[in-house]
Amino acid sequence: MKTDKERPDELQRSLKNRHIQMIALGGAIGTGLFYGSGTTIKLVGPGISLSYIIGGIAIFFIMRALGEMSVDEPVSGSFSHYAYRYWGDFAGFFSGWNYWFCYVVVSMAELSAVGVYINYWFPTVPTWLSALVFLIIITLVNLINVKAFGELEFWFSLIKVVAIIAMILFGLLIIFFGLGNNGQPIGLSNLWAHGGYLPNGLWGLLLSLVIVMFSFGGVELIGITAGEADNPTKTIPKAINQVVWRILLFYVGALLVLTIIYPWNLVGTTGSPFVEIFSKIGIPAAAGILNVVVLTAALSTYNSGLYSNGRMLHSLALHGSAPKIFARLSKAGTPVTGILFSSAFTLIAVVLNFLVPGKVFLYIISVATIAAIFNWIMIIITHLKFRRRKQEIGEAGTLTFKLPLYPVSNYVTLAFLVMVIALMAYIPDMAYSLYIGPIWLLIIFIGYKLRGTS
């Protein structure tokens, strides 16, 4: 029997559908699309649109598995809470701390990048100062209440979405009406004129899936918001179904337009693909516009990361896997201690990033890389155990938001994620993860043993 202190209703249910959708979109659409897509295109060519469709299908199954559990039991601890309940103590401990550290490292990287973006306009401002100022601002917003966070994230994400839509619309004008190309429509020939749709063959397509999957990281934030959704039985299913196809639309649409306008082997050679699009239609401030967008994307990721980390620490504390102080909530229903601890930890990491050699930071990022895959694997396996438990107690028929094609979809998705891990060995920047992943597992296991059995 849960005590009053353990009721998920302690957290304010103030997040509306528009907040939840934008939170998930904001988590999944980041600087990887605006700056990193050129690297992915080099691997697969015009077939990058197919890469995102394949990756999107896997993400759909992962999100529906998480959504089924979130609708049945809408708590802020999300998949960590479900792992505790349906798998065991270590699974819950691992899920929670793995997710927390993953997002701390991602936040650390994004916050470090903020200083670089600010230097575009103010080159004399120290990068550490810019990072510190935005860390303080976003931390204060998160401390107010969940609605303040939701509003900030809504507008952060909206800027990114508008930028992508503008890029797609301008791209279509270039393709079919010759805007910025002396009135000469470009047509669709770039999709196959430079080595074919998959110029690097099936191997290039497979390798691209590694980077594609990491660009989807963050969609699981929907599960974290379940404990503070105003009407989780309606908003969570609606948000998951809409977010998945919107992410696919934005990624596939933007990158399809991009590879039609430019030969795939030229994309990204002169800077960001988005700058190329805006420059081609005669917008001289293209680089400045993009800088606003990527700055917003970095701040959005940090905002979401701080929110989710505070809630995850709160859940871990309720299960006895983190100090009890993290379970405390402010009068506004905000896990203040968890937010401040996560923010302070991120600040320390940013400072260390400036003081220690870059390779040390690269190793930490590698942990976040493999941790993201671990998160998804844990969700899929936990869902299998969740459904079996429901069947044993005769409650499977009461589930209202079921994962399609269960359990086949679970096993296919698991096989896909294992394949992605194996493929990481063939991408130099990702190979670190395969060496550090087992060490990270050992560290968490030691932490689990040290925390005692309480």
Automatic annotation (TrEMBL):
Q: Which domain of life is it from?
A: Bacteria
GO biological process terms on file: amino acid transport; transmembrane transport
Q: Which residues form the Amino acid permease/ SLC12A domain?
A: 19-450
Cellular component annotations (GO), alphabetically ordered: plasma membrane
Q: Where does it live in the cell?
A: Cell membrane
Chain segments annotated as transmembrane: 20-37, 43-63, 128-146, 158-180, 200-222, 243-261, 281-302, 336-355, 361-384, 405-426, 432-450
- Major place of residence: membrane
Q: Which UniProt keywords apply?
A: Amino-acid transport, Cell membrane, Membrane, Transmembrane, Transmembrane helix, Transport
One Pfam family named in its UniProt record: AA_permease
Membrane-topology descriptor = Multi-pass membrane protein
What is the similarity comment for this entry?
Answer: Belongs to the amino acid-polyamine-organocation (APC) superfamily. Amino acid transporter (AAT) (TC 2.A.3.1) family.
Q: Which PANTHER family match?
A: AROMATIC AMINO ACID TRANSPORT PROTEIN AROP, GABA PERMEASE
The protein, known as: Aromatic amino acid transport protein AroP
Originating organism: Desulfosporosinus metallidurans
